Sequence to fold (219 residues):
Amino acid sequence: MSITENLASIKKTIPERVTLVAVSKTKPNEALLEAYEAGQRVFGENKVQEMVQKWETLPKDIQWHMIGHVQRNKVKYMAPFVSLIHGVDSFRLLKEINKQAEKHDRVIDCLLQMHIAKEETKFGLDDEELKALLTDSEFSNLKNVRIVGLMGMATFTDNQDQIQSEFAYLKSKYDWVAKQLPEINTLSMGMSGDYAIAIDEGSTMVRIGSSIFGSRQYT
Ligand SMILES: *Cc1c(COP(=O)(O)O)cnc(C)c1O
Fold:
C-alpha cells in the first residue's frame, strides 16, 4: 500500500476530534511530500537537526511537532518554527524553551511528558515531578511557553490490558492537570500499534509513523 492509501485508511479509523501526527522520522522528503499532497499538514520528528533540515526544504504550511527527547542545547534551532514540543520532562527544559521562544517573540506550545510505561528506558515525569513542576514558583513567570496538555508512551508489549491501564492512568493525570490549567486541550497518546486503545481511553492526538510510512531502517 502507498503512503496515500495508508493515510486514507488510518484516517477512517480516527474520529474527527483526534489530531493525526504523521511521524516521519528517518523518512526522506519525498515520503513527507506524498503525505503532504494527500492533505497531511502535521508531522512529527524526534531529532532536532533532521526536523530543521526538513523544515528548510518542505512547504512552509507544515506544522512541525518535536516528539522526541529534547536536549536543552538544541532548543534554539527549532524555536523559530516548532509548533508543538511533546517531550517536556523537566523545568529546566521548559525554562530554556521559554528563553528561546522569547528571542523569536513567540509563545511555544508544549506537552508535559509523563512516564507511564513499566520500562526504564522511556523518558518522562512521575507524579511527584509533575506536581513539583506545576507548583514551581517560577512557573507563572514563563510567558513564552504554554502548557497545552500531556504526552505519554505505553509499554511496548502485546498485553492489551497493560497498555489500556497505562493510558487510563495518563488520562487521569490529564484530568487532574485540567483542574489547575483549564485551558489544556491535548492528550498525546497512541502510536501505530496502540492508537485504537489510546483513542478509547481519551486520546486527542495520535503519533503514527510506521503504519503510514512503512517500517524504519536505522543505519
Ligand atoms: C517513533 C515514535 C512514534 C511513532 O511510532 P510508530 O510505531 O512508528 O507509529 C510515536 N511517538 C514517538 C515518541 C516516537 O518516537
